[in-house]
Design a protein that fits this description.
about 230 residues; 6-stranded antiparallel sheet; 6 strands; 6 helices
Length: about 230
Amino acid sequence: MSQISNRAAGKKSNCSKTDLGMSWGLMASMVVLLVGTPVASAAQTATESVKSTIDEVIYVLNSEELNQPGRSVERRQKIEHAIRQGVSYEDMAKRALGRPWLELTDTERQEFVALFVQLLRDTFACRIDHYADEQVLYLSEQREENFAEVRAKLSGPKTETVLDFRLADVLGHWHVYDVVIDGAGIVSNYHAQFASIIRTHSYTGLVNKMKEKTLVVKAFETTTAP
């Protein structure tokens, strides 16, 4: 049975592991670099919206002051504040879940979005430091009505990764709703995993698995915080 991803590697990785399945490490962490409430003005181009968020995250990552011992919590909070500039959590979670979303109450939707965000943050917390020295090259932008796709390349010492950010302009704000990395999409990956678990265990079973994962991650963060 296909299951939710949870294997991640950091420079000194002690990241939690559960039975939720194979990792989508780089993919999930790049998404979380951009996840949040859409606030970028549509007066910006889609590329400018993506770039402003990534630039701010990289600035925090490279801050010598925030990399001092004992400031990891503050540093993480600043990163999380910065990343709430480019992507709609709700739109991404809704697309990943698919048809079952239509049957959920507002309360259930809020719960699912929160669990989906934690699912992404698990990998993000383990890998974010790897992006401090990466170079992001913005290659092209295509736009059709209220949708756009920004192609970029993440270039590092050992590898290059092509990123396609898919954005929508909603009420004057650009937000990312999917990222395709080297041809593999975040939303489609999680949709396949969620659908498989729902077929076997029902939607409630999926939520329970996501809750189990969240508890493990919270325990890990508590025991490793300075």
